[in-house]
């Protein structure tokens, strides 16, 4: 269970311990925490809503306040440097940020829901 006043760094520690990432990944290996809103709030014509990233303490508070109304809301954990980088490139492309490193990159979509979630 996540507490509303939990810090971002303590949440990362909890995720690393819960899913045994401490044993599987280097401490410097990136973890990306995201969640997505329900389909009923998506824009007409959109396939799905964009994931919301958890990057700081305030993001946990927001997640918990939304979750009080939407109890099915889950946190998705993306790990592995390749997958995290792919997510970041896709978000930059969606936001219209063209980076020379992104051009010619793998256009395969990251399988968000195939990752661990809490």
UniProtKB/TrEMBL annotation:
<protein>
    <submittedName>
        <fullName>Uncharacterized protein</fullName>
    </submittedName>
</protein>
């Amino acid at each position: 269970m996540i507490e509303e006043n939990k810090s971002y760094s303590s949440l990362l520690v909890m995720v690393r311990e819960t899913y045994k990432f401490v044993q599987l990944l280097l401490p410097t290996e990136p973890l990306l925490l995201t969640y997505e809103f329900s389909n009923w709030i998506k824009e007409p014509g959109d396939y799905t809503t964009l994931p919301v990233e958890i990057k700081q303490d305030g993001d946990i508070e927001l997640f918990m306040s939304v979750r009080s109304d939407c109890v099915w809301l889950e946190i998705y954990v993306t790990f592995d440097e390749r997958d995290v980088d792919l997510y970041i490139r896709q978000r930059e492309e969606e936001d219209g940020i063209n980076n020379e490193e992104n051009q010619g990159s793998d256009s395969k979509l990251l399988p968000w829901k195939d990752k661990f979630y809490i």
